[in-house]
Amino acid sequence: MGSYTLHIPLDVARDKEKQYHHNFDIATRGSGRLMLFAGDQKVEHLNKDFFGENISPEDANPEHLFQIASKAKIGVFASQLGLIARYGSDYAHVPYLVKINSKTNLLPKDKFDPYSPAWYSVQDVVDFQKQSKLNILGVGYTVYLGGEYETYHLREAAQVVKQAHEQGMLAIIWMYVRGKELKKSDEQDAAAIAGAAGVGACLGADFVKVYPPTATKTQTSAQLVQQAVKAAGRTRVVCIGGEQTIPLVFLQNLAEQLAVGGTGGSATGRNIHEKSLQDGIMLCDAISALVCEGKPIEEVVKIYQ
Question: CATH code at 204?
Fold first, then answer.
């Protein structure tokens, strides 16, 4: 690892190209592969992911997220601007990504189409960065394909990507296939995910974050995600970490996504922050060794253990 090819999009302002390259390099730890620590679930999943059985008591305090991000090897920590504003002064060196739209899961997704407009504009994030002097590398936005608000999300996402690039910032799109008229299985259907990844490319995203496809009798999830990677072209694909999994199983799955599927990194939240500070840091460091340093799974497992 250590060298990679970066095609700077033509919508990046000419005087911001060095800043864009710098932000990309930091977020990928010089590898071209994203190591994203996701901390946006306090809105998306409310308190379910922060308090309960098999969750460290440390996770009940929002500062736990920042403590991990400040001490572990990560590329970027994604969260809402308000939370970053509350804790950023104590964790100024953390590389941040501002998630500019979010919604709760209180409305059942089998009865309501998801609707998640932006809380802030890209300019709001730029102004906040100038005022706070924090290390903000980019913005994130969730698009829901398959519902009645799809067109709205796509239009807003397109503007977010364009405006972020004009400022030399990264634009990462969370891309989910979800709507009340769709079956639950559609969310992790390989063809649907590949289509979603292709939409992310058309939006101009730097990275698109998708569900890993459901394995079939003849192909593993890692094999199936190849279709999404090809569909996304120069937009790099990362799979969500999902619900808490046995760490060694999680790392093995990630290794297969990278080596077999050709994915462009990792986007992990619950598997990290639901652990104690020490365990969360160790898992982050193991993920970083796998994603950004290209170490074999045998060495990575030793790092966590």
Answer: 3.20.20.70
Q: Which one from 42, 73, 99, 209 is the annotated catalytic residue?
A: 209
**SS3 label, residue 145:** strand
Whether 176 is a known active-site residue: answer: yes
Crossing angle of helices 247-256 and 277-291, in 10° steps, is 20
C-alpha to C-alpha distance for 38 and 87, rounded to whole angstroms: 16
What is the count of structural domains for the chain? Answer: 1
Q: 22: left (phi > 0), else alpha (psi -120 to 50), else beta?
A: alpha
E strands within 46-183?
Answer: 76-79, 95-99, 135-145, 170-177
pLDDT tens digits, one per residue of 92-113 = 999 999 999 999 999 998 899 9
Average pLDDT of the chain, as a whole number = 96
**Residue 83 counted as domain residue:** yes
Q: What is the pLDDT of residue 1?
A: 43
**What mean pLDDT do residues 131-143 have?**
98
230 as an active site residue: the answer is: no
What tens digit of pLDDT does each residue of 161-203 get? Answer: 999 999 999 999 999 999 999 988 899 999 999 999 999 999 9
- The SS3 assignment for 267 reads strand
Structural domain that includes position 71: 14-304
Calculate the alpha carbon distances from 68 to 31, 63, 240, 265, 274 in Å. Answer: 21, 9, 19, 19, 11
Report the alpha-carbon distance of residue 11 to residue 227 in Å, rounded: 26
Q: Is residue 232 part of a domain?
A: yes
Active-site residue, from 176, 211, 275, 295: 176
Q: Above 90 in pLDDT, residue 286?
A: yes
In a domain, 5, yes or no: no
pTM above 0.85, yes or no: yes
Q: Which residues on adjacent β-strands are paired with residue 79? A: 98
Mean pLDDT, residues 258-271 taken together? 97
Judge whether 6 lies within some domain.
no
